[in-house]
Amino acid sequence: MWEIRVVVGTHPLTGRSKQRSFTIHGDEDYAAERQAELVADHGVRRVCVERGDRLTVEQLLDRFESAPHRWSPTTLRTYGGVLRDLRRDRLARCWLDRLTPAVLETALARWAAAGATPSTLSARFHVLHSAITWGVCERLLGSDPLVGMRSPPRPYPRKHLPPPQVRQLFAAADRQRLAAAARLLERPMSRQRALDLFHAEQDELLVRLAADSGARRGELAALRVDDLEGRVLSIERAAKDAMIGPTKTHSRGRLTLGATTARCWHDHVRAWRDHPLAGDVSGSWLFAARPDRHAPIQPSSLGHRFERLRNEAGLPAAQLHRLRHTVGTYLVAQGKILKAAARLRHRDPSTTLRNYADALPLDDEDAADELDALFNDPGDDSRG
Q: What residue segments make up the domains of the chain, in order of their start?
């Protein structure tokens, strides 16, 4: 007779192993065979760290952050902030071989009770899980201690801007451009009035590009004047503060712009290419503070420009990123899910579905009619 003990889990508070005992009758070979079967059926794999060293969550996060990654500037900044928050939490002192879904669920509940928003909870979970996945790939961990755990609910995406409000933004941008052009005609030699017209044209191009392409703010800030060929726009870089790097998904996107937006781009570039303010050697950045285009404008500055424009349009709740949601919402509502995913440059169409599922058109009228016929007598007109 043999007694076989199998680790079936860990206590969520103490982290100690929970075991189950089995009694086996037979010889040693049969007992060894049954032990392997019981471990496969009931056992759990514990986290194993190379060379027997034990790591805490904080130590794993440190190694994860210092390792080489192909992160975009936006991801680098976002992950850095979340990693700092995780290190300051007492979860950082937890040993990885004691980290379980129950332990993390307790931490998530504690953060929520302290006022953390759904987006904060989602970010902390996904950054921690990314660090664990990296640790498994690097063979620091033998397995994922959070395997099977579902992520917290994702924050609901920002609402799109209705098309009438987008047209209000277009109209406000057009008024500002015409007013700046009229002021320059009054004083053609005024350097400041020429700059005002340059900025007004860029503001109009900004709002049209955002509403047409669905590009992210960092992608807009990193555009070059030669990224548009005819009506085909290439998006292959993004800006974060003063850094220029890959896009969020590390992919190169190509899309066709509307004729009006493409004409606005080409007219703007052509009008200022040989302007005296452009200098002898012109740069290549589309959005810039000066017509020489030697330095790109930072994404935050694009945001400030849009804020001034939205206030002029009487839309204080409008945000630049909501124009991206307008693109996604409209295309998904037309049933063009793959085209929406391609235009928004989502890595996976499931991301598009997850974010814009509420915009899917209803096609269940036939099902409703069938159920109505199933449950109701066709000859019953008692309800009028």
A: 2-44, 52-137, 163-359
